[in-house]
Design a protein that fits this description.
Layout: E1 2-3, H1 9-18, H2 24-34, H3 49-58, E2 59-60, E3 65-71, E4 78-83, E5 89-97, E6 100-105, E7 108-110, E8 125-128, H4 131-145, E9 151-154, H5 164-175, E10 187-191, H6 195-202, E11 209-213, H7 219-225, H8 234-248, E12 252-258, H9 266-276, E13 281-287, H10 301-313, E14 318-320, H11 334-342
Parallel strand pairs: 1-2, 6-9, 9-10, 10-11, 11-12, 12-13, 13-14
Antiparallel strand pairs: 3-4, 4-5, 5-6, 7-8
Helix pairs in contact: 1-2, 4-5, 6-8, 9-10
Amino acid sequence: MQDIKSLTLEELKREMERIGEKPFRAKQLYQWMHQKLARNFDEMTNLPLSLRAKCAENYDYTALKQVRMQESAIDGTRKYLFELGDGKLVESVFMRYQHGNSVCISSQVGCRMGCAFCASTIGGLERCLAPSEMLDQIYAITLLTGEKVSNVVVMGCGEPLDNYDNLLRFLALLNDENGLHISQRSVTVSTCGLVPEMRRLAEEGLSITLALSLHASTDETRKKLMPIANKYTIAELIETCAYYFEKTGRRITFEYALAGGVNDGNEDAERLSALLKGLNCHVNLIPVNPVKERNFTQPEKSYIAAFKNKLEKNGINVTIRREMGRDIDGACGQLRRRQKALQ
Protein backbone atom coordinates (compact mmCIF):
# COMPACT_ATOMS: atom_id res chain seq x y z
CA MET A 1 0.00 0.00 0.00
CA GLN A 2 1.02 3.59 -0.60
CA ASP A 3 2.74 5.54 2.18
CA ILE A 4 0.29 8.42 2.63
CA LYS A 5 2.48 10.47 4.99
CA SER A 6 5.20 10.74 2.35
CA LEU A 7 2.88 12.36 -0.21
CA THR A 8 2.96 16.08 -1.00
CA LEU A 9 -0.29 18.03 -0.74
CA GLU A 10 -0.68 18.05 -4.53
CA GLU A 11 -0.14 14.29 -4.72
CA LEU A 12 -2.67 13.82 -1.93
CA LYS A 13 -5.26 15.86 -3.87
CA ARG A 14 -4.81 13.53 -6.84
CA GLU A 15 -5.16 10.53 -4.54
CA MET A 16 -8.42 11.84 -3.11
CA GLU A 17 -9.81 12.23 -6.62
CA ARG A 18 -8.60 8.73 -7.51
CA ILE A 19 -10.55 7.18 -4.63
CA GLY A 20 -13.66 9.26 -5.39
CA GLU A 21 -13.28 12.00 -2.76
CA LYS A 22 -13.41 15.79 -3.05
CA PRO A 23 -9.97 17.45 -3.42
CA PHE A 24 -10.53 19.64 -0.31
CA ARG A 25 -10.30 16.50 1.82
CA ALA A 26 -6.60 16.36 0.94
CA LYS A 27 -5.80 19.53 2.89
CA GLN A 28 -7.75 18.27 5.90
CA LEU A 29 -5.86 14.99 5.81
CA TYR A 30 -2.53 16.73 5.29
CA GLN A 31 -3.06 19.03 8.27
CA TRP A 32 -4.07 16.13 10.50
CA MET A 33 -0.87 14.32 9.55
CA HIS A 34 1.62 17.19 9.51
CA GLN A 35 0.21 19.89 11.83
CA LYS A 36 -2.01 18.13 14.36
CA LEU A 37 0.30 15.10 14.25
CA ALA A 38 -2.48 12.49 14.36
CA ARG A 39 -1.22 8.98 15.11
CA ASN A 40 -3.88 7.23 13.01
CA PHE A 41 -6.90 7.91 10.79
CA ASP A 42 -9.34 7.41 13.69
CA GLU A 43 -8.03 10.60 15.35
CA MET A 44 -9.10 12.69 12.34
CA THR A 45 -12.48 13.52 13.84
CA ASN A 46 -13.70 16.04 11.25
CA LEU A 47 -13.38 13.49 8.43
CA PRO A 48 -16.34 11.22 7.63
CA LEU A 49 -16.05 7.68 8.99
CA SER A 50 -16.38 6.40 5.43
CA LEU A 51 -13.31 8.37 4.32
CA ARG A 52 -11.28 7.24 7.33
CA ALA A 53 -12.18 3.63 6.56
CA LYS A 54 -11.29 4.11 2.88
CA CYS A 55 -7.91 5.61 3.83
CA ALA A 56 -7.15 2.73 6.21
CA GLU A 57 -7.89 0.29 3.36
CA ASN A 58 -5.79 2.12 0.78
CA TYR A 59 -2.79 3.56 2.61
CA ASP A 60 -0.03 2.74 5.06
CA TYR A 61 0.12 5.22 7.94
CA THR A 62 3.53 5.77 9.53
CA ALA A 63 3.46 6.23 13.31
CA LEU A 64 6.64 5.26 15.15
CA LYS A 65 6.38 3.44 18.47
CA GLN A 66 8.63 4.36 21.37
CA VAL A 67 10.63 1.33 22.54
CA ARG A 68 12.94 3.07 24.99
CA MET A 69 13.80 6.56 26.17
CA GLN A 70 16.83 7.60 28.14
CA GLU A 71 17.03 11.06 29.70
CA SER A 72 20.30 12.63 30.69
CA ALA A 73 20.62 13.56 34.35
CA ILE A 74 23.24 16.09 33.25
CA ASP A 75 21.44 18.24 30.66
CA GLY A 76 17.95 16.79 30.04
CA THR A 77 18.84 15.45 26.59
CA ARG A 78 16.54 12.59 25.63
CA LYS A 79 17.51 9.71 23.41
CA TYR A 80 14.64 7.77 21.87
CA LEU A 81 14.60 4.33 20.34
CA PHE A 82 11.69 3.98 17.93
CA GLU A 83 10.24 0.91 16.23
CA LEU A 84 9.26 1.20 12.58
CA GLY A 85 6.30 -0.57 10.98
CA ASP A 86 8.44 -3.56 10.01
CA GLY A 87 9.94 -3.91 13.49
CA LYS A 88 13.30 -2.31 12.67
CA LEU A 89 14.76 0.21 15.12
CA VAL A 90 16.01 3.79 14.73
CA GLU A 91 17.39 6.36 17.15
CA SER A 92 16.53 10.03 17.57
CA VAL A 93 17.79 12.62 20.04
CA PHE A 94 15.96 15.60 21.60
CA MET A 95 18.20 18.43 22.81
CA ARG A 96 17.27 21.65 24.56
CA TYR A 97 19.26 24.78 23.77
CA GLN A 98 18.76 28.45 24.64
CA HIS A 99 17.94 29.16 20.99
CA GLY A 100 15.28 26.42 20.86
CA ASN A 101 14.84 22.66 20.81
CA SER A 102 16.73 20.50 18.34
CA VAL A 103 15.99 16.97 17.16
CA CYS A 104 18.67 14.81 15.59
CA ILE A 105 17.11 12.18 13.35
CA SER A 106 18.26 9.03 11.58
CA SER A 107 17.99 8.66 7.80
CA GLN A 108 18.70 4.92 7.50
CA VAL A 109 18.43 1.74 9.54
CA GLY A 110 22.12 1.08 10.07
CA CYS A 111 24.73 2.44 7.66
CA ARG A 112 27.06 1.08 5.00
CA MET A 113 29.74 3.80 5.19
CA GLY A 114 31.90 1.91 7.72
CA CYS A 115 33.36 4.90 9.61
CA ALA A 116 35.71 3.51 12.25
CA PHE A 117 34.48 5.53 15.25
CA CYS A 118 30.74 5.10 14.69
CA ALA A 119 28.45 2.47 16.23
CA SER A 120 25.75 3.05 13.56
CA THR A 121 27.72 1.25 10.91
CA ILE A 122 28.39 -1.95 12.89
CA GLY A 123 26.23 -4.54 11.17
CA GLY A 124 25.95 -2.51 7.95
CA LEU A 125 22.92 -1.02 6.22
CA GLU A 126 19.53 -2.66 6.67
CA ARG A 127 17.45 -0.20 4.66
CA CYS A 128 16.76 3.46 3.92
CA LEU A 129 14.03 5.36 5.73
CA ALA A 130 10.99 6.72 3.89
CA PRO A 131 10.32 10.48 4.15
CA SER A 132 7.44 9.72 6.53
CA GLU A 133 9.76 7.74 8.83
CA MET A 134 12.19 10.65 9.00
CA LEU A 135 9.36 13.12 9.65
CA ASP A 136 7.71 10.99 12.28
CA GLN A 137 10.81 10.97 14.46
CA ILE A 138 10.19 14.71 14.85
CA TYR A 139 6.42 14.33 15.18
CA ALA A 140 6.66 11.59 17.81
CA ILE A 141 9.18 13.58 19.87
CA THR A 142 7.02 16.72 19.63
CA LEU A 143 4.07 14.76 21.04
CA LEU A 144 6.11 12.92 23.67
CA THR A 145 7.80 16.04 25.02
CA GLY A 146 4.94 18.47 24.49
CA GLU A 147 7.55 20.93 23.21
CA LYS A 148 8.05 22.64 19.87
CA VAL A 149 11.00 21.63 17.71
CA SER A 150 12.84 24.57 16.14
CA ASN A 151 15.88 22.91 14.60
CA VAL A 152 16.42 19.59 12.85
CA VAL A 153 19.73 17.82 12.33
CA VAL A 154 19.94 14.86 9.96
CA MET A 155 23.00 13.42 11.64
CA GLY A 156 21.79 10.27 13.40
CA CYS A 157 22.18 6.72 12.09
CA GLY A 158 22.84 6.47 8.36
CA GLU A 159 24.34 8.57 5.59
CA PRO A 160 21.63 11.05 4.47
CA LEU A 161 23.02 11.51 0.95
CA ASP A 162 22.93 7.72 0.50
CA ASN A 163 19.13 8.15 0.77
CA TYR A 164 19.08 11.18 -1.51
CA ASP A 165 15.58 11.23 -3.04
CA ASN A 166 13.83 10.41 0.24
CA LEU A 167 15.90 13.07 1.99
CA LEU A 168 14.82 15.75 -0.49
CA ARG A 169 11.16 14.82 -0.15
CA PHE A 170 11.51 14.87 3.64
CA LEU A 171 13.00 18.39 3.48
CA ALA A 172 10.15 19.62 1.27
CA LEU A 173 7.48 18.18 3.60
CA LEU A 174 9.24 19.58 6.68
CA ASN A 175 9.40 23.05 5.13
CA ASP A 176 5.79 23.03 3.79
CA GLU A 177 3.65 25.83 5.25
CA ASN A 178 0.78 23.35 5.59
CA GLY A 179 2.90 21.20 7.90
CA LEU A 180 5.39 22.05 10.67
CA HIS A 181 6.87 24.70 8.36
CA ILE A 182 10.39 24.45 9.79
CA SER A 183 12.70 26.77 7.86
CA GLN A 184 15.38 25.17 5.72
CA ARG A 185 17.83 27.50 7.45
CA SER A 186 17.05 25.62 10.65
CA VAL A 187 18.02 22.27 9.12
CA THR A 188 21.50 20.74 9.00
CA VAL A 189 22.30 17.70 6.86
CA SER A 190 25.46 15.73 7.53
CA THR A 191 27.51 13.73 5.02
CA CYS A 192 30.68 11.67 5.18
CA GLY A 193 31.57 13.08 1.76
CA LEU A 194 29.65 11.63 -1.20
CA VAL A 195 31.01 14.07 -3.78
CA PRO A 196 28.51 13.53 -6.66
CA GLU A 197 25.54 13.87 -4.27
CA MET A 198 27.07 16.98 -2.64
CA ARG A 199 27.35 18.59 -6.08
CA ARG A 200 23.81 17.53 -6.93
CA LEU A 201 22.58 19.01 -3.65
CA ALA A 202 24.30 22.30 -4.48
CA GLU A 203 22.04 22.57 -7.54
CA GLU A 204 18.75 22.03 -5.63
CA GLY A 205 18.28 25.65 -4.57
CA LEU A 206 18.00 24.78 -0.86
CA SER A 207 19.07 26.93 2.08
CA ILE A 208 19.97 24.10 4.49
CA THR A 209 23.37 23.88 6.20
CA LEU A 210 25.63 21.13 4.88
CA ALA A 211 27.95 19.55 7.45
CA LEU A 212 30.87 17.50 6.14
CA SER A 213 32.38 14.87 8.44
CA LEU A 214 36.07 15.48 7.70
CA HIS A 215 37.84 14.10 10.81
CA ALA A 216 41.35 14.21 9.34
CA SER A 217 43.82 16.57 7.71
CA THR A 218 45.50 13.98 5.46
CA ASP A 219 44.10 11.36 3.11
CA GLU A 220 46.23 8.71 4.83
CA THR A 221 44.62 9.31 8.24
CA ARG A 222 41.15 9.75 6.77
CA LYS A 223 41.38 6.40 4.98
CA LYS A 224 42.02 4.71 8.34
CA LEU A 225 38.89 6.35 9.79
CA MET A 226 36.50 6.48 6.85
CA PRO A 227 36.36 4.00 3.93
CA ILE A 228 34.78 6.69 1.71
CA ALA A 229 38.21 8.38 1.71
CA ASN A 230 39.43 5.62 -0.60
CA LYS A 231 37.06 6.99 -3.23
CA TYR A 232 37.25 10.77 -2.75
CA THR A 233 40.31 12.72 -1.67
CA ILE A 234 40.29 15.61 0.79
CA ALA A 235 41.27 17.92 -2.10
CA GLU A 236 38.13 16.82 -3.99
CA LEU A 237 36.00 17.40 -0.90
CA ILE A 238 37.35 20.90 -0.30
CA GLU A 239 36.79 21.77 -3.97
CA THR A 240 33.22 20.43 -3.74
CA CYS A 241 32.57 22.43 -0.56
CA ALA A 242 33.76 25.59 -2.30
CA TYR A 243 31.37 24.77 -5.16
CA TYR A 244 28.53 24.24 -2.70
CA PHE A 245 29.14 27.66 -1.14
CA GLU A 246 29.40 29.28 -4.58
CA LYS A 247 26.03 27.83 -5.64
CA THR A 248 24.11 28.29 -2.37
CA GLY A 249 25.81 31.07 -0.41
CA ARG A 250 25.53 28.79 2.63
CA ARG A 251 28.57 28.44 4.89
CA ILE A 252 29.87 24.87 5.19
CA THR A 253 30.32 23.22 8.56
CA PHE A 254 33.23 20.82 8.96
CA GLU A 255 32.73 18.18 11.63
CA TYR A 256 36.05 17.07 13.12
CA ALA A 257 35.95 14.29 15.73
CA LEU A 258 39.04 14.55 17.91
CA ALA A 259 40.48 11.14 18.81
CA GLY A 260 43.45 10.98 21.18
CA GLY A 261 46.72 10.29 19.37
CA VAL A 262 44.99 9.91 16.01
CA ASN A 263 44.15 13.35 14.61
CA ASP A 264 44.52 15.79 17.53
CA GLY A 265 48.14 16.94 17.18
CA ASN A 266 49.58 20.37 16.47
CA GLU A 267 50.54 19.27 12.95
CA ASP A 268 46.95 18.16 12.32
CA ALA A 269 45.68 21.59 13.37
CA GLU A 270 48.19 23.33 11.09
CA ARG A 271 47.30 21.16 8.10
CA LEU A 272 43.58 21.61 8.71
CA SER A 273 44.05 25.40 8.86
CA ALA A 274 45.90 25.35 5.53
CA LEU A 275 43.20 23.20 3.92
CA LEU A 276 40.36 25.49 4.97
CA LYS A 277 42.09 28.85 4.43
CA GLY A 278 39.92 31.19 2.36
CA LEU A 279 36.86 28.95 2.55
CA ASN A 280 33.70 30.37 4.15
CA CYS A 281 33.26 27.71 6.79
CA HIS A 282 32.93 26.78 10.42
CA VAL A 283 34.72 23.93 12.20
CA ASN A 284 32.86 21.95 14.83
CA LEU A 285 35.34 20.08 17.02
CA ILE A 286 33.80 16.96 18.55
CA PRO A 287 35.66 15.21 21.37
CA VAL A 288 35.09 11.61 20.29
CA ASN A 289 32.33 9.74 22.12
CA PRO A 290 33.85 6.43 23.29
CA VAL A 291 32.08 3.41 21.82
CA LYS A 292 32.44 -0.01 23.46
CA GLU A 293 33.14 -1.77 20.14
CA ARG A 294 35.81 0.77 19.12
CA ASN A 295 39.13 1.67 20.73
CA PHE A 296 39.17 5.44 20.27
CA THR A 297 39.61 7.67 23.29
CA GLN A 298 38.85 11.31 23.91
CA PRO A 299 41.90 13.63 24.02
CA GLU A 300 42.77 15.44 27.22
CA LYS A 301 41.09 18.83 27.56
CA SER A 302 44.43 20.63 27.12
CA TYR A 303 44.85 18.99 23.68
CA ILE A 304 41.32 19.96 22.65
CA ALA A 305 41.88 23.58 23.75
CA ALA A 306 45.26 23.74 21.98
CA PHE A 307 43.74 22.40 18.75
CA LYS A 308 40.97 25.02 18.90
CA ASN A 309 43.43 27.83 19.67
CA LYS A 310 45.67 26.89 16.75
CA LEU A 311 42.73 27.03 14.31
CA GLU A 312 41.57 30.38 15.71
CA LYS A 313 45.06 31.87 15.41
CA ASN A 314 44.99 30.84 11.76
CA GLY A 315 41.70 32.67 11.21
CA ILE A 316 39.40 29.63 11.21
CA ASN A 317 35.94 29.98 12.79
CA VAL A 318 35.74 27.14 15.31
CA THR A 319 33.69 25.87 18.25
CA ILE A 320 33.89 22.81 20.48
CA ARG A 321 30.61 20.97 20.35
CA ARG A 322 28.77 21.03 23.64
CA GLU A 323 28.57 17.45 24.85
CA MET A 324 24.97 16.33 25.15
CA GLY A 325 23.71 13.06 26.60
CA ARG A 326 27.09 11.52 27.43
CA ASP A 327 25.46 9.51 30.23
CA ILE A 328 22.73 8.02 27.97
CA ASP A 329 24.55 6.19 25.14
CA GLY A 330 25.02 9.50 23.35
CA ALA A 331 26.94 8.21 20.32
CA CYS A 332 24.98 7.29 17.19
CA GLY A 333 23.89 3.68 17.15
CA GLN A 334 24.71 2.76 20.75
CA LEU A 335 21.16 2.50 22.07
CA ARG A 336 19.98 0.56 19.01
CA ARG A 337 22.85 -1.92 19.39
CA ARG A 338 22.12 -2.40 23.08
CA GLN A 339 18.45 -3.12 22.37
CA LYS A 340 19.26 -5.56 19.56
CA ALA A 341 21.58 -7.43 21.93
CA LEU A 342 18.65 -7.91 24.30
CA GLN A 343 16.35 -9.34 21.63
